Amino acid sequence: MKALDEFEVIESSLGTQIPIAFYPADKAKATLLMLPAMGVRSSFYRRFEEHMSENGIAVYLMEQRGHGRSPYRAARQHDFACVDYIEEDIKTAISWIKPRCTPETPFYLGGHSMGGHMAVSYAGLFPDDIDGLLTIACGLPHPDVFDGKVGRRITSLARLLPFILFLWGYFPGERIGFAGREFKSYMKDWLVMVQTGDYDFKNMSANIEAGIRSFTKPVHIFSVEADDFAPIKSVGAIGDKFVNAKVARPHLTAEDLDGCIGHFDWVKGMKTAAPKVAAALINKK
């Protein structure tokens, strides 16, 4: 079924505007809310959503603050943290989406890279809101699970980040070559993951790590071939946190993705990979 190009803007109880697009599926067998990677506008995932919808998954795209159709941009006087993303934006989106879902079909929360971390965190806080979890190319950015050049780059950025945030008042990722223009507190929360390997974000309503350990619903952790920013070891570290859930750890190969491999290019290969990803959500048991 053809995707809907129009984004609908919903509002949180605090008046925050959240653009959402819907990609319907003919006789949907599951529904997925997909969260983008850091610095990435939601329109980047159009091929993913279109091919997933062709394979029976109704997909919603949520724009993150600071990018794409969001009316907000990072600045010294405009801040935003993971608590706002998780407990306001995602919570509002799910509350709006679920009444619109096909009855008696599972509702999944998913994300790519940092979007996957936000989905995992949400599952740890609000497990009753979702029927399962999906992450793609999402690896824990902790030095212990990274090797080589990218690991050293992350470590170096972590050391410089406090100075960068103090100097600019936000993160000028487009100048540095990592992510995009990001909010100060959001990047401080990312730094927590780098330094501790845990989701110990500030001001959360509950302990995310404890919630993840208690989560019992299906978890699908997809790794991607030749992904330097989410190598298999770092992806596995996410799955290892779900000690009481049934965790599937499928790997998307060059063959699955028609040769489109890596942290971002996997999206281009979704025409051939979508059946494999969609089957994971449909066969939730």
Overall description:
With 285 residues, this protein is an alpha/beta fold. It has one domain: Alpha/Beta hydrolase fold, catalytic domain (Rossmann fold), CATH 3.40.50. It is built from 9 helices and 11 strands. It has helices at residues 46-54, 82-97, 114-125, 148-168, 173-176, 184-196, 208-214, 232-240, 270-282, and strands at 7-11, 17-23, 30-35, 57-62, 107-112, 132-136, 171-172, 181-182, 219-224, 247-248, 251-252. Strands 1, 2, 3, 4, 5, 6, 9, 10 and 11 form a 9-stranded mixed sheet that branches. Strands 7-8 form a two-stranded antiparallel sheet. α1 crosses α9 (270-282), α3 (114-125) crosses α7 (208-214) and α4 (148-168) packs antiparallel against α6. The two termini are 26 Å apart.
Mean of pLDDT: 95
Give the CATH level 1 class: Alpha Beta
Instruction: Report the structural category.
Output: alpha/beta
Measure the end-to-end span. Answer: 26 Å
What is the number of domains? 1
Walk me through the topology.
Layout: E1 7-11, E2 17-23, E3 30-35, H1 46-54, E4 57-62, H2 82-97, E5 107-112, H3 114-125, E6 132-136, H4 148-168, E7 171-172, H5 173-176, E8 181-182, H6 184-196, H7 208-214, E9 219-224, H8 232-240, E10 247-248, E11 251-252, H9 270-282
Parallel strand pairs: 3-4, 3-5, 5-6, 6-9, 9-10, 9-11
Antiparallel strand pairs: 1-2, 2-4, 7-8
Helix pairs in contact: 1-9, 2-3, 3-7, 4-6
